[in-house]
Design a protein that fits this description.
The complex is a heterotrimer of chains A (89), B (432) and C (511). With 89 residues, chain A is of the alpha+beta class. Helix content of chain A is 36%, strand content 10%. Chain C has 511 residues and is α+β, with helices and mostly antiparallel strands. In chain C, the strands form five sheets. An eight-stranded mixed sheet of chain C has the order 6-7-10-2-11-14-16-17. Chain C has a three-stranded antiparallel sheet with strand order 5-4-18, with no helix packed on it. A two-stranded antiparallel ribbon of chain C has the order 1-15. The chains are: A alpha+beta (89), B alpha/beta (432), C alpha+beta (511). Chains A and B meet through α1, α2 and β3 of A and α6, α7, α8, α9 and α10 of B.
Amino acid sequence: MVSERDVLHIAELADIGIDKEELAEFTGRFNEILDYFDILDQVSADETRESDRANVFREDVVEPPLPEEEVLANSREKEDGFFRAPRVM
Amino acid sequence: MATISFSQKDGHNAFIPTLSEADTGPGALSGIPLAGQDNISTRGLPTTCGSRILEGYVPPYDAHVVTLLKKAGAAIVGKTNMDEFGMGTTTENSAFGPTKNPADPSRVPGGSSGGSAAAVASGMVRMALGTDTGGSIRCPAAFCGIVGHKPTYGRVSRYGLIAYANSLEQIGPMARSVSDISLLMEVLSGYDPRDSTSINCPYSHIPDPEIRGLKIGVPEEYFGEGVDAKVASVVWDGITLLERKGAEVITCRIPSMVYALAAYYVTCTSEASSNLARFDGVRYGPPADPKLPWHDAFQQQRRHGFGIEVKRRIMLGTFALSSGYYGKYYAKAQAARQQVRNDFLRLFRTFDVIAGPTMPTVAFRLGEKTDPLSMYLSDILTVPANLAGIPAISVPCGTSDGLPVGLQIMGPHFKDERVIDVAYAFEQGVSR
Amino acid sequence: MTDTAGVAGQESRSTDFSDDEVIIGLEIHCQLDTRTKLFCGCSTDYRDDRPNSHVCPVCLGLPGSLPRVNKKAIEFALRVGKALNCTVPDESEFARKNYFYPDLNKGFQITQYDKPLAVKGYLDIEGEEGEKRIRITRVHVEEDPGRLVHKGGADRAKYTLVDYNRAGIPLIEIVTEPDLRSPKEARRFLNKLRATLEYLGVFDSEKEGSLRVDANISIQPKGWFGREGRGKGDRGRAEVKNISSYKGVEKALTFEVTRQKNALRRGQRLETETRHFVETRGITTSSRSKEMEQDYRYFPEPDLLPLRVCDLAAGIVLPELPDARRARFLSEYGCSPIHARTLTGDLRLAEFYEQVAGSDPIPAATWVADTLLGELNYRDMTVSRVSPVWFRDLILLVKEGSVTDKGGVEVLRSLLDQLRESGSCETPDQCVRRLGLKVLERTGGAGEEQDPVTKASREAVAEHPQAVADFHAGRKEAFNFLVGQVMKKTRGRAKPADVNQILLGILGEED
């Protein structure tokens, strides 16, 4: 069982804001789904993911970059060729 | 370069953007109007995944499949509606409103590639691209009464496909006939060095309806609890038809099915929680509030940008990967996934294909399903193919209460040709 | 919140600290010197270019972009693993490290987690008591994040500017066991590691920001960290993050030793915490951020396949490494042990030396390891600025006797100053002539009275009668004083042997 506090902690980890009004219902649904996931407790962990393929590489050869006008084309916050992000302090 | 004109009348809300005129050229798909999906990058054309968080995003590059389609002369007339980031079974989770099912506009078209299915079923386009992470091509194909194929994992490049769950999803063809599916597969498949999971296995095949001696396994689990009796009976009739055409039908079991859905949802939500972390508003999409400190700005951005189902899945995945729970959820899901894979490998030593219903029910009414868990449960018959990475097709096999039902045929890795042949044989058998 | 931060509370019992030892483990990040980035074909040569001019959909984390592994980066990392005597496991894989920060292009960093490329190795260094083996826990590869620019300083900036040119540069992370016992050992380890990486041709230490170090440091009772692992009663340790220079590491660690010792002496209990090194002030500060609670939610990168590279590693032939080269310098050139160590401690210096060693390797070693290195350090220059051609000529001028040792040093200084100012310099010959440093050749016979050394010697004797008297009284230093005077008058151009001979001659005449 996860609590509303746990849900808020997970939301913090995922950097998602959860509205207070939706918290109770969200937590309820969350627990229903997690209860369903409990069936995985019966799985033996002996078998792990196997890949029959490995080692796909690229050679160290320079390819042209994206044209500079396209780099910033999708950003509305930019300055002198930089992207503008929120402050870190 | 020639152009074709396209009627933008869209009564089912199948499309997000459309073009009134689209370029076409010479090639296998010359002059054929074709719908892209809104999670497949198209240079110069908005690509939003049905999400507000990508509002206004115009990719500076084409997905590999788009390059291939253009090379084959196809006229891409628009981008179809979908559940936000592919997360849904109804196409109701779109920031652009739900798509309606052309077979019954009061019903959902299925999802997440519901827009593509509706565009094809309504006749707006001859073919469309869909993406299938846990059934997102086959479910709407079944609900709308068209054909949809999920290729073997790796056979179609994912380069340019906006990721929901990388290890599960494939782009695939949707059309009204199996031969069109085959035609589109020929264009889409092949090696792409830009996708490290791509496999060099081009598709060049003309469907062959001869199935005499083919061994079809029918898993009991596909007719078990939760599968609507009428749907089950329509599908059994379909399988019987294949038997009449000379195939041998034998029932079998997939013991790992009990874990499949949980394994699928743990895996896809885990991958999604990471894939969708990039949407912070810095490089594309609506900008994050520059007046706030970064953590608050990102939270606000994502609170407003993502719909509730996307948030739920990001949260589930975040939890499944978090410290102390990884072993209980993610690691166990991978072990279960390997069991599903092993079950199929074992079955394919005996059987040529596995057949059963695509969906446990017919299309839901719009707004009918509100409970997420019961919605997830409706994916139970489609997710095994994604977990195992095998090819799976859904072909129309009649109706139940007047609504389309899909027959699902799954085959061994890289035997897309075989499942397409069986679907073709079925289609030919029904039409005769 | 500087030097007392991180002290959690009082410890009541008194403790004897005389038997404490310093426990240090390092985590080193180096940029691998490949042509292209780790997961895309963008050039790594971005340092003088405009922001965001070396980026593609992968660097920008555009939706739908996919990573592709640069084989060279893996090969470089395997070279390092091999040189550090590591084992290469049958299978390794990339993993996603999930966290949010504006310098991240995808909301996660592709790195390696529980399946690193190479594990369990060691590097031998010169420890406080002879040769010492430092164990290497693991070596893995990962991508560098973007670069943040804070206009007007990080504290005051209203927003952050982001440049993704650096995003995706391949990094190697090398983690040591906590085997280092002093800041000095840590510095020696880093020097040896740097030299090794440079010898391998995978790293260029001269590139700005190419090395970053995190250091774990604590002070524990002697023997606490024994062979059986950690003992009980951990006193808490500091992880000093993001030290970006070699000198910084020793400084930061020295500061931490003092800070922790003082706290322990005051009976305070140290808390395990993350600290930041403030390079400009030479101190570390506590960073009481959420970093301690970070939950990175690692999982295997689904867009990349596993690596099975044992064969690739086995096929790698390592070049001569610092220890082997040092042994060769001893045997082949007859260098002194200290010169051999200095010369081989830096790849460029070693190669420079080999180019100038010529037929007279022992004096050349002195010229390079002592004179040149000292003058370069004084000017904050590196040996790559110096041409071995003119340096060899300079040594030759000295060897032939056209310039005295002292004159040679003067020429060297002048040439290095020119290089620093303008990037180019005269030839040693030109410099000698311009400065008039050519050794004064003795003109014997009839012209003897015109000989400048003889003239200068006579003047010196005439001007310093007391010294002459002292000389005759048998005081050796008086003679040296007179030699010094002659040297001064000839501005060091006289050959010492000539001066000796002439002075003795003149002083003898007076007998």
